TrEMBL record:
SUPFAM superfamilies attached to this UniProt entry: MetI-like (SSF161098)
Pfam families: BPD_transp_1 (PF00528), BPD_transp_1_N (PF19300)
Organism, scientific name: Devosia aurantiaca
Protein name: ABC transporter permease
Keywords, in A-Z order: Cell membrane, Membrane, Transmembrane, Transmembrane helix, Transport
Amino acid sequence: MRLFIDIGLWLLTVAITLLGLAALTFFIGRILPIDPVLSIVGEKALPEVYQRVYLELGLDKPLWQQFIDYVIKLLRGDFGTSFSTSRPVLTDLLNFFPATLELSTIGLLIGVALGVPMGVASAYWHEKWPDHLIRIIGLVGYSVPVFWLGLVGLFVFYYLLDWVAGPGQLDVFYVGVVDRVTGMILIDSALAGEWDIFWNAVSHMILPALLLGYYSLAYISRMTRSVMLDQLSREYVLTARLKGASEFRVVMGHALRNAAIPLVTVIALSYGGLLEGSVLIETIFSWPGIGNYIYSSLFAADMNAVLGGTLLVGIVFVLLNMLSDVLYRVLDPRSRELAK
């Protein structure tokens, strides 16, 4: 019975959170000084044409009624129609989101693979030179604007050194060669056996993925350091050392094992942050993902697309946060005991 109550409360929390997110995106869209009617009919449209579109969009209704209509459409999976592409926004989101998911996932893997060991090392050599060096690296990662790092990276590694491919997901003559299966170019090219396209995609992906990985690394290493410092000060660590356990076993087998539970939440939030923060990276590198789609739609005054993209990223972020809470309960037996 308790399990069903917990599931019901969890679903209610998700529903309220998503409703609040929908309200936030909707009212921000109404506050922005952008006229959706003009973005459709153009500035030279006749007044009667303007009025007809104005009524068709339901802008004559009270704001609360517009919001209710908006939520009802969302529940039906209707995000509206993009004025830029003349396609349903949901169709565009499903086309563009896999590229963002692929890039962000690789960035997260880089961030976890480097950030966790760096955080562990920083905590182990607390207040020594490795700790100071790692903290400086992290400070640069979450202090320097990512768009500036992207521009510098393109200038140095693409323009000057020619070590990586330039903006875009593929070279022009490879575009459209591989059939779209998952929407993720590395997986689709591997499934098709097109290894030239695969390695070309890797070359295009190296720089943006490394920048996202660096951004993620800065946050993960800092949080790992904080959690590990707390674990290394616990009595069980002192007991393990007094029993003659090796430093590797103490740090990796005991402290890091217990630190892994809160790190699940850290990594999930970092993943959501990459999906949310990929807008600038995708814009700089002309990456055909959801971030670039939102950016282009905003400049085209295509508010249906902007709100739909923002809402999708928010939904993913909320679901990742909820998933991290579930994993926390599964991995930590103490939280399950408290829930009983």
